[in-house]
Specification:
single chain, 336 residues, mainly alpha, 2 strands, globular
């Protein structure tokens, strides 16, 4: 059996499958409701990425984490809507910063309506998420505020770059812990917290989400280079073209500086050149796909996914725990 969610996650229990499917359907309805406005144009812009689809990775994690308490508690679906709205809002802003043209197989909001509309639409989604949070209580507001601070801090760190003397790879891992890990950690935390699970379980699922989030982003880094299709929802090489630092590129630069091999130095020069040229980008992708840096990034992805799985050990054996373990495997599978 499979549930509606990322990577065709398999579960072994009909009741769990049915409940998770129902929960995700309710989240989808909640997203459409939360993105409605009295102004039709705002509704169109706000629902642009909602209707484009997506893995709904974070709501799925909320649903699975809720199985360790009361999975039918009233705060679970709204909290899942909050984390997905927040994620969607960051995508609008990210595409402006990265000058991206495509998101989830459709024209990005900034490409379609311009940067100002995209930024303001992201702000609109943040506002709607806050409105829902207000009904979930001050603790939920505080948790989300702290996660959002980490998310923005990660974005600022990425924009500023590593300070002098700081290892670029360590800096990057701090960046993605904030940009990606923080909100996925909150997904696990909200699911457990809203279900009334024990505090120890809430902490376990928060730590699990943090590590899984890092693995998830590292898998995306690998996929941006290794994929020949649109598996990541973006054209392969998009991050390279936009000059976004990713783990394989940072590992390549590290190797070039350490070993001084001419082929590595030449590849770095190509990366630093004009990658708007399709032929040049294709050459860079082809060379990175056979470079040891890509395999090292895969190994790091596996390591973080294994760390996430290990966090689950104290939880009681159940179908939900098995599904969370399979999420770790699915993330690794994406990275090849």
């Amino acid at each position: 059996m499979t549930v509606v969610g990322p990577f065709g996650l398999s579960v072994r229990d009909q009741a769990l499958e049915t409940d998770v499917q129902a929960g995700l359907a309710a989240v989808e309805a909640g997203l459409l409701e939360a993105t409605k406005s009295e102004v039709p144009f705002i509704t169109e812009a706000a629902q642009h990425l909602v209707r484009a689809g997506g893995k709904r990775f974070r709501p799925l994690l909320v649903m699975l984490a809720s199985r360790f308490g009361d999975p039918y508690a009233p705060g679970i679906v709204p909290s899942a809507v909050v984390v997905e709205l927040t994620h969607l809002a960051t995508l609008y802003h990210d595409d402006v910063m990265d000058e991206a043209d495509v998101r989830r197989g459709v024209a990005s909001a900034n490409a379609r309506w311009g940067n100002s509309v995209a930024v303001l639409t992201g702000d609109f989604l943040f506002a709607r998420a806050s409105h829902i949070l207000a009904d979930l209580g001050p603790e939920a507001v505080r948790i989300q505020a702290e996660a959002f601070e980490r998310l923005v801090t990660g974005q600022i760190l990425e924009t500023a770059g590593p300070r002098d003397g700081r290892d670029p790879v360590a800096h990057y891992l701090d960046v993605i812990a904030g940009k990606t890990g923080s909100l996925i950690a909150v997904s696990g935390r909200f699911g457990a917290l809203m279900s009334g699970a024990d505090a120890s379980v809430v902490d376990i699922l928060t730590q699990y989400g943090e590590r899984l989030g890092t693995a998830f982003q590292l898998a995306d880094d690998v996929l941006d280079i290794s994929s020949d299709s649109h598996e990541s929802g973006k054209t392969p090489g998009t991050d390279l073209r936009e000059g976004i630092p990713t783990l394989p590129v940072l590992l390549l630069r590290e190797a070039a500086e350490r070993d001084g091999r001419e082929e590595d130095l030449e590849l770095v020069r190509l990366l630093d050149g004009d990658l708007t040229d399709d032929a040049r980008l294709a050459e860079v992708l082809a060379r990175l796909r056979v470079h040891p840096a890509l395999e090292q990034a895969r190994r790091d992805t596996v390591r973080y996914a294994q760390d996430a799985r290990a966090m689950l050990a104290p939880l009681p054996e159940c179908f939900a725990k098995s599904a969370l373990e399979e999420l770790c495997d699915a993330v690794v599978h994406r990275a090849g």
